[in-house]
Amino acid sequence: MIAFSILAVMLLATAIWTISAKKPVYSVVALLAHFAALAATYLMLHAEFLAVIQLIVYSGAILILFLFVIALLSSGVAPFSVGPNKMPKLAVPAVVLALVALGALSYGVAHLAAPTVTATPGAAPLGPVGAADVFGSVADFGKALFTTYLLPFEITALVLMVAVIGVILLAGDRTPYVATEKQAREVRREMREAIVRGGDR
Amino acid sequence: MNVPDWIIILIKSAILLLVVVTTFAYAMLAERKVLGWMQLRPGPNRVGPWGLMQPAADAAKLILKEDLTPKTADPLIYRLAPFISLLTAFSVYAIIPFGADASGAWAIGNVNAGILLLMAITSIGVYGISLGGWASGSKYPLLGSVRATAQMISYELGMSLSFIGVLILAGTTSLDGIVNAQVHQWFIVPQILGFLIYIITAVAETNRVPFDLVEAETELVAGFHTEYSGLRFGLFFIAEYVNMLTVSCIATLLFLGGWNAPFGLTMIPGVVWFIVKISFFMFFYMWLRATLPRFRYDRLMAFGWKVLLPLATLNLVVTAIIVALKG
Asked: Among residues 82-121 of chain A, which lie with CB inside 8 Å of chain B?
């Protein structure tokens, strides 16, 4: 109870700091502390795997990208050539590979022994943190995620995909992508001339 | 008399911390010696016999040096960054097992999701470098920290994927479980590709030659720690060496059988084997530093994304298929 109170205060304080900080980098640091406290809270609830994933995914991957973007805020991007569009050529092998993967997975699901679920998820016993096959352990988490809660899990993936596409559309990438290095040089020259005409931003 | 658990954990942690710091001090000396020998010069040999007191002299120098903060720096984050680096570097050792006996693995905490927790903690280490470079408020550190961020998140992907092959074979994520699964055969044999990918990405993750674009003294002065001096620089320095030690431990635990003895030489205790294997990796690092030139940055990124990541994915898929067909 004492530990929970401390964590709750930490969670609230860092959350408020995140949204009230004047410098974006301070927000990132506050959010980092928030995620750490959140992971500790998960641990107290015996959700060991969730705590670790919280750290790996949010602190280790997502937040560091925030920091990356914030550190480079307001810097321009020069165009570079991406080469000719390879999509049409790669489409056939990609589809074949995807179908093979789908076939292999379907075969696996249909023919291999189903994982033996020892206890129904949610009703699993609250064991000591660290023991296998108890609520919150890696095995239990995986079973729950890929059997009972498979549909919500997949729908979440779809929602995230929609969000990613939305961000690309909304934020808009104004870097002019061009096919050849010659065109890229042309665009760079135009940009330089525009900067000279308009004065330094 | 019953001693409460937390006191025992505290004592264990203190001892382990002492061991890790001493290892750092002599790893640093060993590196300078090995580099010296490889370049046909004696290396440090003035302080004490064979230069053995050199780490103490270096520590005294770093502690007594003036601690400068640039006027343009962000004071809070500038001070916080070295601590993040060091904290994450040290906290990993809470869950790394060094040996085992009948009562279980020798580790302060034995965690079910051990290898995942290791990944989680080490992935936070990049914040120290990233924030430190940003907070210095000058251009070379900023460039260094941006490079660090991009490099570390790119190579982390290949690294995690190279782990998963081992996890599939071992069927567990706990570190002593993985070591126990290697009693008969070390995972370096079935996972040779994973092992190669791991050691390459591990060098990149610790920002060592040939992947030390983060510091790159020929272009960036000293990269992210250009503005740091005295003990604050020392903290970054300790973190770098402790991280080297950590990735050596992980390579040993995952691929070289941990404390399992090779060729049935079980009369030598497991913990000795563990130290021998780690020392080999540490030497390997120094060897690389003495022999290889630095990568060019765009090639570094291309190598990480276009070579290591697909190879690691292929390794994972093939391992999964073989395990599924066998089992």
From this structure: 104, 108, 112
Within 8 A of A56 by CB-CB distance, chain B residues are: 116, 119-120, 123
How far is it, in rounded angstroms, from Cα A194 to Cα B324? 60
CA of A135: how far to CAs of A114, A125, B174, in Å? 20, 6, 16
Q: How many helices (H) and strands (E) does chain B have?
A: 13, 2
CB A188 within 8 A of CB A79: yes
Q: How near does any CA of chain A get to the CA of B81, in Å? A: 10
d(CA A3, CA B282): 40
Cα distances (angstroms) measured from residue A93 to each of A5, A89, A104, B178: 55, 8, 16, 36
Cα-trace Rg, chain B: 20
Q: Is the pLDDT of residue A73 over 70?
A: no
**pLDDT 10s digits, A16-36:** 888 887 777 788 888 888 988
Tally the C-alpha atoms within 13 A of residue A79's C-alpha that lie toward its C-beta: 23
Give residue B257's region: left, alpha or beta (phi > 0; psi -120 to 50). left
User: B175 vs chain A: nearest CA distance in angstroms?
Assistant: 12
**Chain A residues lying within 8 Å of B127, measured CB to CB:** 32, 64, 67
SS3 A81: strand
Is the preceding omega at residue B210 within 30 degrees of 0, hence cis? yes
- What b/e sequence results for A37-56 when a residue is b if at least 16 CB atoms lie within 10 Å of its CB, and e otherwise? bbbbbbbeebbbbbbbbbbb
Chain segment B274-318, per-residue pLDDT in tens: 888 888 888 888 888 888 888 787 888 888 888 888 889 888 888
CA A68-A70-A76 angle, to 5 degrees, is: 90
DSSP B266: T
B235 Cβ under 8 Å from any chain A Cβ:
no
Q: Please, what's the b/e burial string for B102-136 (b: 16 or more CB within 10 A of its CB; e: otherwise)? A: eeebbbbebbbbbbbbbbbbbbbbbbbbbbbbbbb
Contact B259, B275 (CB under 8 A): no
Q: What span, in angstroms and rounded, lies between the C-alpha atoms of A105 and A102?
A: 5
Q: Per-residue confidence at A5, pLDDT binned at 50, 70, 90? A: confident
- Please give the residue of chain A at the shortest CA–CA distance from B142: A71
Chain A partners within 8 Å of B324 (Cβ): 108, 112
Identify the CA nearest to B143 among candidates B201, B221, B77.
Answer: B221
Q: ipTM of this predicted complex?
A: 0.75
**Threshold 0.80, pTM exceeds:** no
CB contact, 8 Å: B231 with chain A?
Answer: no
Identify the structural domains of chain A with CATH numbers, from first to last: 1-75 (1.20.120.1200)
C-alpha to C-alpha distances, B265 to B106, B140, B185, B262, B271, nearest whole angstrom: 20, 51, 14, 6, 13
> How many C-beta atoms surround the C-beta of residue B99 within 10 A?
18
Does B120 contact A60 at a Cβ distance shorter than 8 Å?
A: yes
